[in-house]
């Protein structure tokens, strides 16, 4: 199978930036991700929130899929919350992915409320969610969330 190109915006807590490289490696020859998110390699020193949003909004809009990497502190990020809500406003598919080895991570409120799928660190499920829009609602260990009336309720 040849490499498929997919434009994605990867939202992440700054401490979890390495997760973007690990996601690219995990997906290997399935997809070549064109990441539009802000990283230390593509950093700007802007301080004005409205200006920063004006930079992020078109990047989220250009992406075909919005991915949020979920680590131990992601739920504390106001920027992750805003990016997820902006992706929902722009009607982008939203995929929450627990970083490998993450356990007992609280979901960001916006992911809990708006994600189309939430998966553990599992290549086939991530690809299935990106490519086919498959819906999963999992805990950080990849097991199915139990006793959930709405798939967007907290783990």
TrEMBL record:
InterPro entries reported for this sequence:
ThsB__TIR-like_domain, ThsB_TIR-like_sf
Show the SUPFAM superfamilies listed in the entry.
Hypothetical protein MTH538
**Stretches assigned to the Thoeris protein ThsB TIR-like domain:** 9-102
Which Gene3D superfamilies does the protein's record reference?
A: Hypothetical protein MTH538 (3.40.50.9200)
Q: From which domain of life does this come? A: Bacteria
Q: Note the Pfam families from the entry.
A: ThsB_TIR
Name used for this protein in its record: TIR domain-containing protein
- Species whose genome carries this gene: Marseilla massiliensis
